[in-house]
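## retry 2 of 3
previous attempt timed out at serialization; input unchanged, resubmitting
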Amino acid sequence: MALCAQIALAADVDRTGGPYVPTPQSVVDAMLEVASVGPEDFVVDLGSGDGRIVLTAATKHKASGMGVDIDPDLVDLANASARKLGIADRVRFVQQDVFAADLSRTTVLTLYLLPGMMQSLRPKLLADLKPGTRIVSHDFTFDLWKPDRTVTVETEEKYEITGIWTSDVHLWIVPATVQGAWRITRVGEKGGGRLDIRQGFQHFKGRFSSGDRTVELKDGHLEGARLSFSVPAGNGRREMFTGTVDRDQILGEVREGEMVIARWSATRVP
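## retry succeeded, writing output
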């Protein structure tokens, strides 16, 4: 292949996310199962091809949704299938660049895109999707943003294309943003302290400071807007903090073992 043709092909793959390869139906079923799709969900498939993921979500799980693809023929095919199945009132397919897609209604996002496109999309997804949104990908990941769960599915029909008998289905729960400094208080107690958090997607590290005491946070984790971490409390004891993040505020409980010993709140330091 001539160099100019190779460059053009690479640019096209980067723009489209790869050639059209339909996701095997067994993988579609596993993706929707792993994401726990139900009637209240709005499923968006970026690079939707013939629409099978959104169509299955609507027919089998009673969800609503939208597919986005750059190929007008595939978009027409998917919309025709929706009309034939009698679900065009709940799902639609649009011809559009995935980077321009409106994700505001999304509760479940599905993907089967090459790694370069996954990496390019990651900032948009973290910025546009609400905390708690479920992202499910067939085979490919976001590199540094590790999945919360991975399931391997047997896919015999994939062998002729890839030489591999299985597919991986990856699940991420979009985390709230907690990076930075927070003022923290226990409800009903005087004084307070400061949390300094260094976030790495759904995991975080940091410090709790109060007066002349500073301790490291342990086991910092986010599942959507749900946050948890622990701090040492003296004499070998540990206190577990859990809470719900709502933009610039966190409200939650402090436990020692199974017992709730306090309630706490935190506000983001500007």
